[in-house]
Specification:
This protein is mainly α and 181 residues long. Helices cover 80% and strands 0% of the residues. The chain is built from 11 helices and no strands. The longest helix is centred in the first third of the chain and has 14 residues, at 17-30.
């Protein structure tokens, strides 16, 4: 089994996805809930733009390996692309516990929380991100969105303005200034 797994991984790394997929699937027939095999096949499916198939495999892997930050972030990527925001939120919360000072995952969590209509929670996450990185234009944009949706449009507008000053070419912020300003 280990030799077959090593061969599948080598094929996967060499970009021979079809051959690697066949081997991963053969391995899963013997051990359907093996977290590493599910993870590798899920990643391969994600790489070949088959996110719907990848998601169930990544769920199995993450359930068994919840402390694998990179795996969590792959799962988040797949979940958000499939608009599985509740699952993306769950995995981002795990990721931010593992790496509480990672700005990118905090910003992504704030965005998902806004998407899930949890603006108060998103506001707290953006405040933490800004405290960690006061130059994060994205965190200010997300803070502006959360504030605007909470009805605090003046404060939201100021956050959008700060974001634009930090990154003048950020079209999403300019759009938010127009929509919420």
């Amino acid at each position: 089994m280990q030799a077959q797994f090593n061969q599948a991984q080598a094929l996967h790394q060499a970009g021979k996805f079809q051959q690697a997929e066949v081997l991963y699937r053969q391995l899963l027939q013997n051990e359907i809930n093996h977290p590493v095999i599910n993870a590798r096949l899920g990643i391969l499916l994600h790489q070949t733009h088959r996110n719907a198939e990848a998601l169930s495999l990544l769920k199995i892997a993450i359930d068994s390996l919840p402390n694998e930050y990179d795996l969590l972030m792959r799962g988040v990527s797949v979940a958000t692309q499939l608009s599985e925001n509740a699952l993306a939120e769950q995995w981002l919360r795990l990721a931010t516990k593992l790496k509480p000072n990672d700005i990118a995952s905090l910003e992504q969590l704030a965005g998902v929380l806004i998407g899930n209509h949890k603006e108060k929670q998103a506001l707290e996450v953006t405040k933490k991100a800004i405290k960690l990185d006061p130059a994060s234009a994205s965190a200010y944009n997300l803070k502006g969105l959360a504030l605007s949706r909470l009805g605090e449009t003046d404060k939201g507008y100021k956050a959008f303005q700060k974001s634009v000053k930090m990154n003048p070419g950020q079209l999403a912020v300019v759009r938010n200034l127009i929509l919420y300003g």
